[in-house]
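Message: I would value a second opinion on how I read folds in token form. Give me a protein, with the fold worked out from its sequence. Write it directly below this note and I will take it from there.
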Amino acid sequence: MQHFDLVVLGAGPAGTSAATRARELGLSVAIVDKARFPRDKLCGGLVTGRCAQALHDVFGFEITPELFDTRRDFEFHLNGRSLGGLRDVPPLHLTMRRNFDVQLLDIALSAGAANYTGHRIGSIDYTRNTVTLNEGQVLDFGCLVGADGVKSQIAAGLFGRSFDPDKIGFALEIEGPAPSDPETQPIRIDFGAASWGYGWGFPKRDSTTIGVGGLHQRNPDMKTKLEAYLALLETEQTCTIKGHFLPFGGVAKRPGRGNVLLVGDAAGLVDPITGEGIGHAVRSGSLSANAAARALREGQPQLAARYHKAAIRPIRQAIAQARLLRPLIFAPRLQPFFARTFSESTQLKRDYMHLLSGETDYREILLRTSKRLPRALWKYLGV
């Protein structure tokens, strides 16, 4: 048996963030993942300005052209109708998760985390605080971090299921051909390509990531919707379709229990409007390490989940605020109103972009919306 102050399950952005920050705080750390890296991961690979800042704060990570394609142009559509676009907006960055995640893992391992990637979990004993790997190795922990994604084994072990099926999202995605000139090709967002969701086209140097995603219950025919979206974009389906559940705003009521903490997708920390999760994953992973270190320092590891929940409250509040706005964008009955208002308003488009860049937040967007909405409705209704 080997003892670690912190055992982290999952070596994506949330897990590597927790491991890197924990090592900075002087904790002994093991990071466990069933996959060997590099590995493929279904994700559009959009890194927002807010996410870029989190990567810098936690990893000292910079946006470099070797790993990222930076884009400043956007186009918006709804059901095939153009809603206009924006040019020279705050930069957004596109990456391939296969390359991106291995870079973050290398940072965590270089910081001194013990590497248990390529190992499956045999069992977890929450009473004895042990993780047993399939090969028989036993890791004893002070605190345990579940960064193991939307189908979290840890969340299921604590609460009986890893997510609420009534709130979960689902996405399908392919890597299509690269555009002839990716640097001039705008990022494309198609509201309504899926019910209570959207479609996306992210032009990268070697491919175009194309996908559709939305609430799972409202999209039993997601494959048909992907096919329709590919036809709209005049993209032939010659690549493997990847599918993945997405915690589309279905935040876990309890992001842990005792000395066990949930972060990133395992805690449901995904924006219910934009679908962005990498930034929240990085922030929540780092905050979980802070909570674990405090609880262990005080000799009360059972308080770690309480500290963690308090620390990630701003993330949870932002997601709750986004859920209030989501019907204005995605509710089918409001789509004609949204289409007209969004297409006629450069300011609304800029609000959306400044939200992604981290220059504004949902609280500010809610305040602005509450002031603009009555006038927009009167205009729409011809009052």
In short: The two ends are 73 Å apart (CA to CA).
